[in-house]
Amino acid sequence: MSLIRINKYLSMCGVTSRRGADVLIASGRVEINGSTVSELGTLINEETDVVKVDGVEASPVAHKICVAMNKPRMTITSLHDPFKRRTVLHYLKRLDQRVYPIGRLDYDTEGVLLLTNDGDLAYRLAHPKYQVSKIYEARVAGQFDQDKADQIKAGIELEDGKIGHADVSVLGFVGKMTRIRLTLTEGRKREVKQLCQKVGHPVKHLCRVEFAGVLLKNLKPGQWRLLSSREVDRLYGMVGLE
């Protein structure tokens, strides 16, 4: 008998990420054999149990894919928003398979967003222990100098008490703002904005230009592309899923 956690099973089915599955369960939207699931750590027999989300049966995907999107600003990195704001799902209408976001980009942040129906890949690319690089370009207020870059690289305490840090380089100056590039490998919540704010240079505009080595390749905001088999193989190798 093969028993696995319900959140992992839902991620294998391309329904949502493991974290997203916990939210669905807490909302009473998941059933096992006709009974609503109440415990987040519930185990299921993937061979015999019938799992439904919002009344629709969930089953493991046959074909795993990964999508790169240029997420526009003022768009929620989610498949559903209770406040009816535009989500990334709006731009995926031509995609015939369900995918979900790997990690998050803030509502007002644009750039590279990866989406997949492969739960294991999503979990590892988003988890800090795998040290997957994310590169951002930001415009920040004021004249950002090397001393501030060194402070961020050394590490700064974040809102949750964790220490955040990034490699930072100055790209140039635009009026009363500075263009900088930051490379992070943990990607904590609002990390770029927190780091820059803590050294006195609030972020005015933020774009993720690269995630796990994946680039936009001239995609306009809202456009997406399927990753090539070579790109997907490289991602699997990066997080030990070969």
Give the oligomeric state of the chains in this entry, treating copies of one chain as homo and distinct chains as hetero: single chain
**What is the share of helical residues?**
10-25%
Helices, by number, come to 6
What is the C-alpha radius of gyration, as a whole number of Å? 19 Å
Query: What would you call the structural class?
Result: alpha+beta
CATH superfamily descriptor of the largest domain: Pseudouridine synthase I, catalytic domain, N-terminal subdomain
So what's the CATH class of the largest domain?
A: Alpha Beta
Plain-language structure description:
There is one protein chain. The chain has six helices and 16 strands. It has about 240 residues and is an alpha+beta fold. It folds into three domains: about 5-55, RNA-binding S4 domain (Structural Genomics Hypothetical 15.5 Kd Protein In mrcA-pckA Intergenic Region, Chain A), CATH 3.10.290; about 65-130 and about 215-240, Pseudouridine synthase I, catalytic domain, N-terminal subdomain (Alpha-Beta Plaits, 2-Layer Sandwich), CATH 3.30.70.580; about 135-210, Alpha-Beta Plaits (2-Layer Sandwich). The strands form four sheets. Strands 7, 8, 9, 10, 13, 14, 15 and 16 form an eight-stranded mixed sheet that branches. Strands 3-2-5-6 form a four-stranded antiparallel sheet, with no helix packed on it. The protein has a two-stranded antiparallel sheet with strand order 1-4. A hairpin with a 5-residue loop joins β11 (about 155) and β12. The chain starts with a strand and ends with a helix. The model has no long low-confidence stretch (mean pLDDT about 90).
